[in-house]
Amino acid sequence: MKQPDATRLVDVAAAAGVSLATASRAMTGGTGVSDELAEHVRAIAERLGYVPNLHARGLAGGLVSSIGLVVHEIGDPYFAEIASGVLHRASLAGQSVQITHADRDPRSELTQVNALMMQRVGSIIIAGSGYTDPALEAPLGDALAQYRTRGGRVAVIGRHHLDVDAVLPDNHAAGVSVATHLTGLGHRRIGVIAGPLGLNTVSDRLDGLRSVFDSTGVHVTVVSHSFTREGGIDGTNALLDRGSPVTAMVALNDAMALGVLRALRQRGMRVPEDVSVAGFDDIAVVSDVAPALTTARIPMAEMGAQAVALILRAEADEPRRISMGHELIVRASTAAPPD
Amino acid sequence: MKQPDATRLVDVAAAAGVSLATASRAMTGGTGVSDELAEHVRAIAERLGYVPNLHARGLAGGLVSSIGLVVHEIGDPYFAEIASGVLHRASLAGQSVQITHADRDPRSELTQVNALMMQRVGSIIIAGSGYTDPALEAPLGDALAQYRTRGGRVAVIGRHHLDVDAVLPDNHAAGVSVATHLTGLGHRRIGVIAGPLGLNTVSDRLDGLRSVFDSTGVHVTVVSHSFTREGGIDGTNALLDRGSPVTAMVALNDAMALGVLRALRQRGMRVPEDVSVAGFDDIAVVSDVAPALTTARIPMAEMGAQAVALILRAEADEPRRISMGHELIVRASTAAPPD
DNA sequence: CTGAAAGCGCTTACAG
DNA sequence: CTGAAAGCGCTTACAG
Questions:
Q1: Which of A205, B141, B253, B295 is the most exposed place for a label (fewest CB within 10 A)?
Q2: How many angstroms away from the CA of A122 is the closest CA of chain B?
Q3: Which of residues 113-142 of B touch A (CB under 8 A)?
Q4: Which CATH number fits domain B4-52: 1.10.287.990, 3.40.50.150, 1.10.260.40, 1.10.3720.10?
Q5: Considering CB atoms only, which of A1, A51, A80 is closest to B74?
Q6: Global pTM value
């Protein structure tokens, strides 16, 4: 367990002929050392292959420079792409990233955040939707508030009832875009395959859709299932079994849209001839499915990168909000309704 | 930065009426405490909301219980699925996971591993292919050897020239399965869209294919491009522009296969009527593309979980090898060649 | 600008 | 089985 050979800061200090304190200041870029001396110390450190012990650093100073990223499930392309953006941006800043699964459960989220805090990570990024019910986020909010008083930095991706820096996806507007596209094509009976209505992501996208549908006299049927490919299959079957005649279906994320496509195929319904299908996110694969999916692109990797940018800056008086745009990507899965 | 309120182990010890040493033993499950006393201490700790400071622990004891996972790119479904398996299994064991990008570059890999070591993570899992050239892995091997003498645990996923525990995907056999499937269908002119030939994953799969093709008198054309969807597109165009008439194409991973499908579509060639296509991995999406892809399934998530299982066990005298199976998933993208 | 010293919160020999 | 004490490698007031 011991590493008698590891060179420590004292060794560097001795070799450089300075005190431990000075060596420390030189290495951490702290103020109060002449540039030449600092340069000298760093050269010695380099030559000796000095590697700082982050645990000692963490113990002595408090929080350590690393990021805790809480995702729903890293195997989900939506989160994998966010994580990719986080990792790239973090590595530029020399910060390490620890990833944990929250399984889209408020309690689990709290558990993970507590674990991250106990590890003294310097910042925490929570990716994944907030909940429409503020009460569900209250415990998390308390934990985070306490963490922030200790100097911890926090950023969330998505709309939360949390008083922290946030990167906001354009969910409502994306809903409007998708709805406008569909109504513009002439659809008047539309089915919406939603995820859990308690998620802000779902709620915001749905509201965006509805704002257009309602003012266009579109007949909307909404079914809510799990926010996954399986949920898309179940939702489609539920909707169709119910006998609701629709000419278009909107899945509230691409994972569900993939399920919709699959269910439709199994039922022998053609897309877009019999029914149009649209999704949200533009995860990498949806341009390769058949037919290629029309979807509202959310810049996942960029959101991850922006979240890192937020936590890298000092906390402001007011929580910062970075709004991201979206882009409607029209592909082959949507067309005018059948006559 | 300070947290004057955090309850420390001394506080727990005081409240429990025992010494710091005893409290420590009780909390870490160390031997040498009566069960009752240990139980008592833990109850007090629980009540006080005691959370151990891992940095103090790491400083005092050496390595800390957390896992460093090195992947090529977390946005790539292959690695995202491996990571998912790692995260699930690790959370069961109460270990945190830190993920870093290595960008499929030996030097970057070494840099990442060094960073992980300097953070005193207790174990390191390297996912991603090894290199056919042993020299490329030598520096990494040295770093890892040193790390292991300090008590660090190491496991790799995939074949490496590294003397450590390994989870081995069934690449050669998977190649045999794909080749057998294709020759069985009657294909005699086959194109292989390979990734970099210096990667063991590529080399092993190719060898597997060749062992069958060679003994069946199949005419094989191999092109090598980047191990991505783009590489699949480029490879397909290169192969076809060269005028090599093939009735089937094998991409050495599903990402490339997606590119092949796309390139073929753009050229107006039908799959499988004009040309059959097969891949490797069975990443989640390939069952949804059109036509659904025939592929050799590699159990990514399971490999990740197995790697964690390996590092959780103490090091053995001889490196352990866990061989994973594969499964040929025949879907719509392969059929008999056109007459 | 530089140094001596205290302290961060644990674990682990070393003694009983 | 239990305790007193040293030590892990840093950072940061506190002095000069």
A1: B141
A2: 10
A3: 114-115, 117-120
A4: 1.10.260.40
A5: A80
A6: 0.90
